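hey so i finally got around to running the thing on that chain from the lab meeting. sorry it took forever, my laptop kept dying and i had to restart like 3 times. anyway pasting the input first so we r on the same page abt which one it is
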Amino acid sequence: MKIMLDLHVHSAASPDGRMRLDEIVRAARARGLNAVAVTDHDVTLTDAPSYDGFLIIPGCEFSTEHGHLLGLFLREPIPKLPFAETVDAIHAQGGLAVLAHPFERSRDAKRLEPLVGMLDGVEVRNGRAERKIRDANTLALDFAQAHGMRQFAGSDAHLPGEVGAVSLTLDVPALTLPAVREALLSAEVTINGSGRSASLNVARSQYTKLKKVRARPAAYAKWLLFAAKCAAEDLFRRN
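ok and heres what got predicted. didnt touch it at all, straight out
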């Protein structure tokens, strides 16, 4: 069977996320998806509910000294560890370790070359990666192809409207975690979506974070400037 899945989605468990799991599933189904990976910031989803005809892949987005790392198909939380140890901990659970939006902040590919042998793949299209570096996704694809690495993709959604904006299509024998995991490592994949979320969505996520930490008025004033910058970026992009 052919399925569509988004491998990078944040719930309210992320500091800058606001979606409940049922809200994520509803948004994903509306986009024609069959599965999503919930990958909150340094928080592992360990008790994913079951949905009829829809699969939630438990995961986490780890903050490391080499940037963000997606752990997919996790069963248990992983504490804060150096990059290599985090990858080992992911693999010890039978999970997949995927480099997330590797060129979001830097064009330097050489810094990533020592990591290649540890990883199961690279996120070559991310919905938020190109806000600062406009060809970040192209650089990630070039890197994956140059090193013969499996290609992954996800929206990096923090808001319902972003879910499924980037997705993968692949064939699986069954809609189960083992079958999808195996297909991601071996089947041919098609990447869907433009990979460019509105900059204002990033500002909205930051507003969520400010509300959660009950930030002071000065922080909101700074956020207004950031939101104006994001709005200008969106306008420039449309023009």
